[in-house]
Write a structure and sequence with these properties.
The structure is a homodimer of 293-residue chains. Chain A is built from twelve helices and nine strands. Chain A is of the alpha/beta class. In chain A, the strands form two sheets. Chain A has a six-stranded parallel beta sheet, with helices on both faces. A three-stranded mixed beta sheet of chain A has the order 7-8-9, covered by helices on one side. In chain A, α5 links the parallel β5 and β6. Chains A and B meet through α7, α8, α9, α10 and α11 of A and α7, α8, α9, α10 and α11 of B.
Chain lengths: 293, 293
Amino acid sequence: MVRSIGKLVVIGVGLIGGSFALAMKRAGLVSQVVGVGRSAENLQRAIELGVIDQASHDPALAVQHADLVLVATPVGQMGRVFDAIAPVLPAQAIVSDAGSTKGDVAALMRQHLPKHLGYCVPAHPIAGSDRSGAVAAQYGLFEQRRVVLTPLADTQPDAVAAISHWWQASGATVFTMRPDEHDAVFASVSHLPHLLAFSYVDMIRQKADAERCFDFAATGFRDFTRIAGSHPEMWRDISLANRDALLADLHAYQAQLAQLTQWVEAGDGEALEQMFEQAREARTRWHQGFGKN
Amino acid sequence: MVRSIGKLVVIGVGLIGGSFALAMKRAGLVSQVVGVGRSAENLQRAIELGVIDQASHDPALAVQHADLVLVATPVGQMGRVFDAIAPVLPAQAIVSDAGSTKGDVAALMRQHLPKHLGYCVPAHPIAGSDRSGAVAAQYGLFEQRRVVLTPLADTQPDAVAAISHWWQASGATVFTMRPDEHDAVFASVSHLPHLLAFSYVDMIRQKADAERCFDFAATGFRDFTRIAGSHPEMWRDISLANRDALLADLHAYQAQLAQLTQWVEAGDGEALEQMFEQAREARTRWHQGFGKN
């Protein structure tokens, strides 16, 4: 059963929530978009930009008669949002999200929306950016991007089919996996590198010759540290939410660094070159395929 | 005394050596360019592309009547090159290089060119790229780039002035510092991040779910790992050459990671957010100034 969305409620009208609303509008798949948020200024801007049709500060009021509720707030706010909408949610309204971690969102849904789990579909649209707010919303953001759905044991297949259809209509390719599989993969390819980049910049800024270091930092430094420009609150939430998978990767990386340090100490050029070569080969192979599917 | 270059000998005709030759030609500052290398194919290509005028496999023959000898080989080959040219070097030929480490090049010059130190000027043009060979040589590579000179105690001011003038004519801004200062700065802003990126990719490729990880790696991963596509042999040489500064930074980074891991383990969101915030602020401030001087 694939349907169009009579009423879409986007809670958290930023890059992801706003761009999803725009995508549904362009696809002719939505009749009405209500945006919910704390900042009146951001919501006003979202109306002016045509991202939403109506604004509200009250999630409970907004979700009445909703067909789809997309919770695109930081994960740290989702518990409160689910709590607020739980008593008034229409029986068949699909509830989805856009969080970067999925085990915790699944747990929050089980905790706060226990009677609604058949229509809960945790989701992760992979379209990060350092831009935020309604002004960041853009047409086409999800084209050639990936969306990972992590349905709960109770989620109805119809609800998964509907949300898959909508994300596909935005131009994305949709994948399905278990929440814990999702979190292990994203700890490795996204969360760990963010923490490594933040730590690296924080170490450099504390050096006695920090000013001279920054003076001579070049394009390699620029690319390596780009993700250290990401949103601190969001990354705090992710670090806490994906604690177990992240700790496993942090320990593995520390072991890797200890080995590397030993090679440098011992002047073992052969071991170093072999490791660099294997890393380069894997990275080159990855890069050749990147963006092609 | 600023002079033009009658005969320029480039030993190692790749991205840096080749682009320097092109820059001198465009500036009208050189009469003849001789390229020296091991690969006949690369030298032939360099002649066809107008990067060099003549090719040679023999450094000792090539440097006769040279005014400037630019040794743009990997640092690991420089000792042999200096040895080969030492007996035949014209008395006032300036010898410079393009290595990413300077303490070791200074030491190699002192060891292999002890009678020529007045005309030795170790240098580091900061224009990295993952492209290599004569085909990578390009006009304008050094425009708005930086070149660090690390003269020896014995280097004649005239030789420093001449090489400064030539690099400035290529469009670069020239800085001078001590070899050990240079190596500490570049360990921090270049060598350490390369080693961290290589180690990270090597860790991911060894994971049980490596294939799925690479499948979902996105733009953050792409930028963070770009430098892991760098040349293994060159980075082996740099790791060995800049061992002491690199070890100091590796230890500092490991301490930083141990602290981070403790915060994640303890679920200390406040400490994490504060560190992320300080890193983001430092990175943003750096990025706003980057490329402006």
